[in-house]
Amino acid sequence: MSPAAAAAAAARATSFAATFSASTTPSSRGLLRRPFPGTPAPRRAVASMAVSAPRSAAAASFLERRESERALHFVKYQGLGNDFIMVDNRDSAVPKVTPEEAAKMCDRNFGIGADGVIFVMPGVNGADYTMRIFNSDGSEPEMCGNGVRCFARFIAELENLQGTHSFKIHTGAGLIIPEIQNDGKVKVDMGQPILNGPDVPTKLSSTKNEAVVQAELVIDGLTWYVTCVSMGNPHCVTFGAKELKDLHVDDWNLSDVGPKFEHHDMFPARTNTEFVQVLSRSHLKMRVWERGAGATLACGTGACAVVVAAVLEGRAERKCVVDLPGGPLEIEWREDTNHVYMTGPAEAVFYGSFVH
Ligand SMILES: N[C@@H](CCC[C@H](N)C(=O)O)C(=O)O
């Protein structure tokens, strides 16, 4: 659909302010298709306790009024509990909300609540679309792994596509290619990891060729061994510290230790940090402190960086299941292409309007 047709369809579509589905059953997911541009929505409740009763005249007029103001329609998606407010920005190369507004929208008490805001924008350089994202603090990262799976599913809804599809997405980390599979999961070609220290970026000295592998980083008297990997965005991966016998990731208070990694002088662009336990050579468990978002339930680029780091440290095979607090991701770092592949779920859970 052309941007002009999409805009016209969007104008025809009914606003569904504060309409949501907490269910993840296929039938409720089917209902969620209706209100997107191009598929004018019926003016009735959609799997929602909020609007299941007939609307009073007062309530209807409230919604009409909201519609006539500067209402921004959004759909909230989640990938393993890493949640994003998705904005249809196909008609403009300028994000429809500012970083400050994004931070407000992401606030879990004073806003909608999310780990970030993602914009579906026109493609450039031969790409089908461009993805931009603001973290929940308003900063703009280069890439988001769970976000790009949500992005692919959102495009399929916007363009009314069924079945398997792949898209070329321009991101701050270059071209990323998600493919919606028959089972609804999304497999993403995440490109090649960047290992050169200054390019990650980190000021830590390289230890293995040009890569920073098991380098020492002292935080609060503990000497952590860290491996630095960029998946377009920077990651610092640790499997433990000199003074610790084993790293039990569940024992750590990430909001205490995470910011000390994120803002460490060795990371000029700040960093995401992954704390990892090796369950077997093909099964890893991690928790993450994200740059600009704090402790989240999952991080796709982080899981990719973890497998790359585990291979570089000789701890795991190239194909692993990575358990995150929100669920598992399948990750493979292919030897022949040097590309990393990530497979996992993504689904719409909530749609509504934000008045700004
Ligand atoms: N959760 C994301 C990563 C989002 C960006 C990150 N916070 C950063 O600033 O780099 C993922 O799934 O990759």
TrEMBL record:
It is found in: Plastid, Chloroplast. Pathway: Amino-acid biosynthesis; L-lysine biosynthesis via DAP pathway; DL-2,6-diaminopimelate from LL-2,6-diaminopimelate: step 1/1. GO terms for cellular component: chloroplast; cytosol. Belongs to the diaminopimelate epimerase family. This is diaminopimelate epimerase. One of its GO terms (molecular function) is diaminopimelate epimerase activity. It catalyses: (2S,6S)-2,6-diaminopimelate = meso-2,6-diaminopimelate. It comes from Lolium multiflorum (Italian ryegrass). GO terms for biological process: lysine biosynthetic process via diaminopimelate. InterPro entries: DAP_epimerase_AS, DAP_epimerase_DapF. Pfam families: DAP_epimerase. Keywords: Amino-acid biosynthesis, Isomerase, Lysine biosynthesis. Its EC number is 5.1.1.7. It comes from the Eukaryota.
